[in-house]
TrEMBL record:
PROSITE patterns: PORPHOBILINOGEN_DEAM (PS00533)
Entries under InterPro entries matching the protein: HemC (IPR000860), Porphobilin_deaminase_cofac_BS (IPR022419), Porphobilin_deaminase_N (IPR022417), Porphobilinogen_deaminase_C (IPR022418), Porphobilinogen_deaminase_C_sf (IPR036803)
The keyword Transferase belongs to this UniProt entry's keyword annotation: yes
Catalytic reaction equation(s): 4 porphobilinogen + H2O = hydroxymethylbilane + 4 NH4(+)
Co-factor: note: Binds 1 dipyrromethane group covalently.
Positions carrying S-(dipyrrolylmethanemethyl)cysteine: C244
UniProt protein name: Porphobilinogen deaminase
Lineage: Bacteria, Pseudomonadati, Pseudomonadota, Alphaproteobacteria, Hyphomicrobiales
Porphobilinogen deaminase C-terminal domain sequence ranges: 230-296
Length: 309
């Protein structure tokens, strides 16, 4: 047995640490190894440090992954644990997503103070979110609400609610569950009304291409269905050139050999949107996602994206 320490890199937020611990726990079981066989290395990222502006303005998704990827490429860590939702569609040369853990609930929740449900908020109430997708979906449901940018980790956002900065906020149920905090949710949003971001609820593992030891270790905790769903959702995002500036939702479900994908793009004000549904074979996940992205882009036309960029 290979007894060298496997170094697991993670961001330092409570959610990131919970995800790294879950990964370590699964590796311990899969390989019958003690906790001491793994080291969790906390790496601070620009996304964690920049708190004063929306990430879409500060440089996008890569802000949560850059420093972890540098540590991987430098050999300071062997694997990096990420939320798939935060991963850019292209990775640096020499790195790959080598495993996806079984997916958590993909739905978003509303955490309300002024009301438990979005529909019951008073006219003009304030809802905080930094996600363009969530902002657009809230505006589509309730154009009268005042949507404000709300950054920071789950704990920071909940504290802002207590301080009265907003009457409610949106969070991923998956993150709350991993933190043991899902009781704070006051409304679980139906997927049809509030479709999730591509990758939501799925933890992924990034490693060096050709690192056989790390690849073999994480292969034992890989979940086939999550991997196929993510191949489809990430191909959809890539076809749309999805950045933090584009409100995009997408979710693929796997049922044996079948895959069913739903995608949605919106204008930031939520007034216009295009949706797409595709069914196909699970082993063609990436092709289905790419074709759905190409089709929705063609249907929307260039004007859709240019009208508000
Ligand atoms: N960008 C932050 C982020 N990235 C992933 C999650 C939730 C966990 C997940 O989707 O796996 C969150 C917090 C949130 O959206 O509430």
């Amino acid at each position: 047995m290979d007894t060298r320490l496997l170094r697991i890199g993670t961001r330092g937020s409570p959610l990131a640490l919970a995800q790294a611990s879950e990964t370590r726990a699964r590796l311990m079981v899969a390989h019958d190894l003690p906790e001491e066989a793994f080291a969790i290395e906390v790496i601070s990222t620009s996304g964690d440090r920049i708190q004063d502006r929306p990430l879409s303005e500060a440089g996008g998704k890569g802000l949560f992954t850059k420093e972890l990827e540098e540590a991987l490429l430098d050999g300071r860590i062997d694997i990096a644990v990420h939320s798939s939702k935060d991963m850019p569609t292209t990775l640096p040369d020499g790195l790959e997503l080598s495993a996806f853990l079984p997916r958590e609930d993909v739905r978003d929740v509303f955490v309300g103070r002024a009301a438990k449900r979005i529909a019951d908020l008073p006219q003009g109430a304030t809802v905080g979110s930094s996600s363009l997708r969530r902002q657009a979906l809230i505006r589509r449901m309730r154009p009268d609400l005042n949507v404000i940018t709300f950054r920071g980790n789950v704990q920071t956002r909940l504290r802002k609610l207590e301080e009265g900065v907003a009457d409610g906020t949106m969070l991923a149920l998956a993150g709350l569950k991993r933190l043991g905090m899902d009781h704070v949710a006051t409304e679980i949003m139906p997927e049809a009304q509030f479709p999730p971001a591509p990758g939501q609820g799925a933890i992924c593992i990034e490693s060096r291409v050709g690192d056989e030891r790390a690849t073999a270790m994480v292969a034992a905790i890989h979940d086939r269905d999550t991997g196929l769903a993510l191949a489809c959702e990430r191909a959809f995002l890539a076809a749309l050139d999805g950045s933090c500036r584009t409100p995009i939702a997408g979710h693929a479900r796997i049922d044996g050999d079948a895959l069913r994908f739903s995608g949605l793009i919106l204008t930031p004000d939520g007034k216009r949107s295009h949706s797409i549904e595709r069914v196909g074979r699970a082993d063609e996940a990436a092709t289905i996602g790419r074709e759905a992205g190409d089709a929705i882009r063609a249907e929307a036309g260039d004007g859709f994206f240019e009208s508000w960029v």
